[in-house]
Design the sequence.
């Protein structure tokens, strides 16, 4: 990301565990808030988070939007740094896949399910924050709507760049690819 996108290494967080994640996010936000950028966002992928521009002037120690494909231990640290009026978009739960390996560990999956974050809807109202979730797998019957949203998204603010590819696997080695993602 440093070479391909010109990001400073202090903007990129390779997640280690949930307990260190909030400090990693704060350090990246602190770096970016002192840079010359003027827009506000934070984005995440399954293995790293990239703080892409400065936080807004009203909430210099927070982010306005979080995209989360992991959940689990990374949910609360991100939620703690969400600004008033912020949006948390969760679109995956890769955290639960770590209990699977080659076959599901039902006891571990059950434990992770019991310990998943719980939210109080009235606290969201009080804090003026939103949590939204979606799963594209269940949108198969809304193909026209999805195509329209994709078209709209591609015309906004581009230029769009292809995603960073961290590792490539041969199709015959799909099990190794899944383990790598886990």
Sequence:
């Amino acid at each position: 990301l440093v070479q391909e996108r010109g990001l400073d290494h202090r903007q990129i967080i390779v997640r280690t565990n949930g307990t260190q994640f909030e400090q990693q996010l704060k350090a990246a936000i602190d770096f970016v808030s002192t840079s010359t950028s003027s827009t506000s966002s934070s984005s995440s992928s399954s293995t790293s988070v990239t703080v892409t521009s400065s936080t807004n002037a009203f909430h210099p120690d927070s982010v306005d939007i979080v995209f989360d494909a992991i959940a689990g231990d990374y949910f609360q640290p991100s939620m703690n740094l969400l600004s008033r009026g912020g949006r948390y978009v969760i679109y995956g739960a890769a955290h639960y896949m770590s209990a699977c390996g080659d076959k599901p560990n039902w006891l571990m999956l059950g434990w992770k399910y019991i310990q998943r974050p719980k939210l109080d809807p009235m606290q969201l109202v009080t804090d003026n924050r939103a949590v939204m979730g979606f799963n594209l797998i269940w949108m198969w019957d809304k193909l026209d709507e999805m195509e329209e949203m994709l078209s709209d998204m591609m015309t906004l603010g581009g230029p769009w760049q292809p995603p960073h590819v961290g590792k490539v696997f041969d199709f015959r080695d799909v099990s190794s690819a899944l383990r790598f993602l886990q």
